[in-house]
Amino acid sequence: MVKIFGRRWSSGATKPTLSDNAAAKEAYLDSHPEVVHADLEQLDSETREMYRDAREAAVDAREERAKTHTRDFVVRSPFQLGFTVTLGVLVALLVGSIIGQLSTIIMYVAAALFIALGLDPVVRMLERRGIKRPLGIGIVFGGFVLVIGGLLGIIIPMIANQITLLVRSAPALVQDLNNQPWFIDLNSRFGEFVDFDGLLRMGQDFVGDPENLAQMAGGVWQAGIGIANGLTAGLIVLILTLYFLASLRSVKRAFYSLVPRSGRAKVIDITEQVTKSVGGYVNGMVVLAFTNAVLGFIMMTIVGVPFAGLVAVGVFFLALIPLIGSVLATVLVSIVALFDSPMTAIIAAVYYLIYMQIESYLLTPRIMNRVVSVPGSLVVIGALAGGTLLGLLGALISIPVTAMVLMIIKQVWMPRQEMR
What is the pTM of this model? Predict the structure, then answer.
């Protein structure tokens, strides 16, 4: 974002002396070094006019507030105040219950909005090259659907074949496990502490029991139903994504219209920064996860990790989780590679340890730091909180939400605190 209003105070300059004049105080807040205003070149014509009008209204409101005196809050009717507070609590409980009932739909809407914000920067790029927005939306969304469809067309048959192979070979893998050199060495070293033979017999008995196989078949059937529901949810999210992408500007303008005219400019400033950050963050996370999955698939194919295609799909989704995704992917690949040999597992683990360093110090700074900048501790806390509340979607949106909160604190709360 480019600062186009006000001016920044240099480190050697002194701040202006603030009296009790409300207009002077708000002018200082508006020109604080942490405050970043919206770039007018990135706004459409209607939003640009709304923003300029809001700036003028903010100036008029400052002058009006400078002429008025504040009034003390006096409770004249305690009963009326208590009744109003109680009614507000009941309404809040009712709204919370309704949100709980609509949690699935809210997740669909949040996911669609998240994807739409990720595709919007590409649409804007096409607009800057002279392509009208409706055509740009059609190109971007059509390309997105083709990419998703192509990947599913390649991945689903591969996953189906590897799942079939896994089901067929699982009994043999378990039965032959006691002949593996790494299991023999592990049993000889730590067998006196842990009964590995007993654990292996339990696994062999479980796999060899027809009733357990029937239960597993029922679980596969339930998994198939879950996949069908997931495809239906994906279709709904795609449709909502198209609607959001087509009406993103009008939706934002409608949101701005709900804000009082004098305070609308600040809301536009923050919202434009947040939407830009979310769009860049989504694109960056997808690029990093795709790079992780493709390079991991190549490595697993070379060293002979079983079910490399299936594991690579899992690596892609795990890599989308902020901060801990690569660690979880390393654990997954290492465990699967152990079925081939300990050396294969060691090679896979070493590869991912090297890759995580390259991703942390080379790829992530180039792709993500220009978009969002959130301290690592807050990333962990946000990811844990988001994952607990909304699962994978919550973990994905945790960093943009945390960045938004930090942005509001820096640009709204901190300047006011410095005046006190």
Answer: 0.67
